[in-house]
Structure formats: C-alpha cells, structure tokens
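Long-time lurker. I teach an intro course on protein structure, and each term I like to show students one example going from raw sequence to a predicted 3D structure in token notation. This year I'd like something fresh instead of my usual example. Would anyone be willing to generate the tokens for the chain below so I can use it in lecture? Attribution to the forum is fine with me.
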Amino acid sequence: MTPKNLRQIHRFLAPIMLLPIVLTVITGALFQLGEMLGQEERIEWLLDIHKGNFGIIDLQIIYPFLNSLGLLLLVATGITLWLLPKRRFQKKLNP
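-- Reply from a regular --
Happy to contribute to a lecture. Here you go:
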C-alpha cells in the first residue's frame, strides 16, 4: 500500500469516526462521574447512548465493533504515516 493510499484512507475515515469516538468518550466519562456521585439511576440513559442505543436507532450489536474497528484503522494508518520518511519540500524558484 502506498503512502498516498494510506493518507486517503486516513483522511476519509477520520471525519467519519470523530463523532462516534467523541460521543463514546464523553458519555463514558459522564457516566463514571455520575456513578461516583451516586446518581446511577438518573443517568442510565448515558450508558444507553454509550453502548449505541440512540432511541429509534439501536446499534448496540454493531456499534462497539464499528467503533473499535474504525479507531484501530485510524491508529494503524496514523502510525504508519508518522513512521514514513518525511518528504522535504523545496521552494521552486521562478526564473
């Protein structure tokens, strides 16, 4: 796989995965905070969202799998691109 293909995959996947990953992190952190404060009953809906139950749309079966697969692909392509030799850009001099 060429660096150009890796970059294209990474650029395509990053905006798609942003919302699910941020949503999972925020709902998980808020639920943990509520649990520490003894408010589990009042914030159980956060755990539903965290697991992929969005009311009418229930993705609990595939949401964690898609979330983890997308994150692993982002990490793999990101690390691979980071480890590639850096291109050096030269200024073109206009005669």
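Some talking points for your students: The mean pLDDT is 87. The chain has three helices and two strands.
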